[in-house]
Amino acid sequence: MVKICCIGAGYVGGPTMAVIALKCPSIEVAVVDISVSRIAAWNSDQLPIYEPGLDDVVKQCRGRNLFFSTDVEKHVCEADIVFVSVNTPTKTRGLGAGKAADLTYWESAARMIADVSKSDKIVVEKSTVPVKTAEAIEKILTHNGKGIKFQILSNPEFLAEGTAIEDLFKPDRVLIGGRETPEGQKAIQALKDVYAHWVPEDRILTTNLWSAELSKLAANAFLAQRISSVNAMSALCEATGANVKQVSFAVGTDSRIGPKFLNASVGFGGSCFQKDILNLVYICECNGLPEVAEYWKQVIKINDYQKGRFVNRVVASMFNTVANKKIAILGFAFKKDTGDTRETPAIDVMNKFDWDHPIHLQPMSPSTVKQVSVVWDAYAATKDAHGLCILTEWDEFRNLDYQKIFDNMQKPAFVFDGRNIVDVDKLREIGFIVYSIGKPLDPWLKDMPAVA
Ligand code: NAD
Ligand code: UDX
């Protein structure tokens, strides 16, 4: 029986390994983590992450061929294939601070693998890492491995949160990079055999190590660039009377461009896009390519501009101040169908408001932090509010009783839709002053220009 161990039981390690265990009953999968509470949650009925379909997959295989454990060393020692899916955040200090990937967790995992291994192993980079990381990992393993042979593979993960299980069941592609030596090719084949249990062979791409590592950064950069492109257009739409939804649709019907990922928004968030682009920018700079670095930096600049532009619209519309006003924030996660709030645009938007004054959040656990109170219910959040901001596109916000909300708000009542999910005409009929990203402006907003 092949044994797999995955170091890191997070948003990637947990769901990915659960799906491997489900699809490969002949493989034993252990997911290990240094976080005792995370592992306890994986072993409970309340999983540590919310992801549609995940509970079901875990229930089917946990205790059968899927195990969650804090005994990292034991499971690494016993495994044939070790996935490393630890976090790789942006460095906050030292060389490359604010841009480079912090590989501390990765390096410590690699040193531990070298330390505890007693048999040859395939080590798989699942985390998103800078191109050429495999070379560094190889050095750590071979210099500390006491003669044990390690093959390093790059197998970046392309799942998106909120659709992780769907993405893992039917991936657009699985990418495996390895050394072009006979041993490297044998290792690639071993990992291919795992995925081949459910992924059609033509969707399993194999490349050299550096192409696989760089493809992950490139894919995220391209995706984020599309959002910044449509968000840049949304500003021009507001200035000209064009409607960004219509423009996106018209542009996306070109088969060379395609319709997906063209939704204008308050800005992209999440733990990946900004971090990975900053990482790409740093790599370009380190390789003497300042023009390329500058090109990708613009994607983040536009994203910051978009968040700032949204806040300016809110403040300018409300007589240039939010002082002594109640603002209801609907949604806090960085996108719908996830509980993840890492790098959510809602944090930046709220930080840009005047913190001397009350801001009301929903939905999170009921608690009160400084000027922020958190409630479960959109109706409670909007009661007596001067304005409401939709910052996550949760389905429930599409179907609220907006008449009831209007009746209970201060007048004039404002809706600022950062996700383009409300029916603007209907809300205007009710009496709201509505701002919806990239849509033709309410006459009220035209009279209150917001300078970005
Ligand atoms: P995460 O923070 O949710 O999980 C990482 C886990 O690794 C944590 O639970 C942490 O305790 C554990 N860990 C850290 N060092 C460890 C060690 N030495 N031994 C054992 N456990 C250790 O992170 P994530 O969102 O799962 O992301 C993991 C990687 O995958 C990152 O490189 C990320 O860029 C990449 N990625 C993430 C996504 C996503 O949607 N979140 C998608 C694709 C790729
Ligand atoms: C992303 C990549 O999609 C995934 O392939 C990679 O593995 C990890 O990073 P994720 O961050 O989980 O996934 O979610 P994604 O759906 O890409 O959304 C990222 C952000 O962009 C969210 O804040 C989302 O609301 C925003 N977005 C997305 C838009 O603003 N407009 C769009 O059209 C699409």
Oligomer: single chain
The assigned structural class equals: alpha/beta
| Biggest sheet overview | 7 strands, mixed
**Can you tell me the CATH superfamily of the largest domain?**
NAD(P)-binding Rossmann-like Domain
Tally of helical runs = 17
Distinct small molecules bound, one entry per kind: nicotinamide-adenine-dinucleotide, uridine-5'-diphosphate-xylopyranose
Stretches where pLDDT is under 50 for at least 5 consecutive residues are: 356-368
Query: What fraction of residues sit in β-strands?
Result: 5-15%
**What is the average per-residue confidence, as pLDDT, rounded to a whole number?**
94
Tell me the number of strands.
15
Provide the number of structural domains: 2
Distance between the termini: 60 Å
What's the arrangement of strands in the largest beta sheet?
A: 11-12-10-9-13-14-15
* Text of the CATH class of the largest domain: Alpha Beta
Verbal overview:
- 45% of the residues are buried.
- This protein folds into two domains: 197 residues, 3-Layer(aba) Sandwich (Rossmann fold), CATH 3.40.50.720; 212 residues, 3-Layer(aba) Sandwich (Rossmann fold).
- It has 17 helices and 15 strands.
- The protein is of the alpha/beta class and 452 residues long.
- Helix content is 42%, strand content 14%.
- Helix 16 links the parallel strand 14 and strand 15.
- The protein has a seven-stranded mixed sheet with strand order 11-12-10-9-13-14-15, with helices on both faces. A six-stranded parallel sheet has the order 3-2-1-4-5-6, sandwiched between helices.
- Bound molecules: nicotinamide-adenine-dinucleotide and uridine-5'-diphosphate-xylopyranose (UDX).
